[in-house]
Amino acid sequence: MSTCSYLSAVNQKLLFAKKLIKLIDSNAVAQEDRHMRVALSQSITLQLGQAWAWHLQDVASNYKVKDPSNINSIDDLVECLMADGKQPAESTELKQLFYSNDSWANNLLYACSQLYSLPVIRKAEMDADRLPMLSLDDVSNSKRKAIDWDLSTAMQWSKQMNELVERHRDMMIEF
């Protein structure tokens, strides 16, 4: 994938997150429709998680890493850059955000990872349409609590991810 491809892929995911947020902002989602709000929150999180992954590859591409498609984590990025004798501010910030337990990026990526983890079933409940819904509370192998799929949190993550990508692109232009 070329530099432009990673840039476009990140842009696409950020755009999709914005479009989902626009649905919320346009009041197309009723406050009382809990399932739709959770679905949108999870969808925004998924888009942002993929934007993060492709942003890592975009940073690698901008710093001329041999094969950016092999970058699957912040550790991969830092390792490849250091092997080339580079330690740019972008990778330092990304690593700090990833490993800081109280950072927005750490929380976003944890939430994103939980979309792929089978939760522990607490109890069955009936929803407003009288459909049995399993309450999926806890994550079986995690020391962290279950994710509160709150739209305002997902919207904040989107804002912060957009700011991060924009700032990094400005910094990489100078490189």
Counting DSSP E segments of at least 2 residues, the number of strands comes to 2
Order of helices and strands: HHHHHEEH
What general outline do the C-alpha atoms trace? globular
Strand order of the largest sheet: 1-2
Radius of gyration: 18 Å
Number of discrete helical segments: 6
What count of structural domains?
Answer: 1
Helix content: 55-70%
| Uncertain stretches of 5 or more adjacent residues | none
Distance between the amino and carboxyl termini: 20 Å
Mean pLDDT: 86
Question: Which strand-content bin applies to the residues?
Answer: 5-15%
What composes the largest sheet?
A: 2 strands, antiparallel
Query: In terms of structural class, how would the helical and strand content be classed?
Result: mainly alpha
Any overview of this molecule?
- The chain is mainly α.
- It has one domain (3-118, 148-174).
- It is built from 6 helices and 2 strands, in the order αααααββα.
- It has a two-stranded antiparallel ribbon with strand order 1-2.
- Helix 2 (34-62) packs across helix 5.
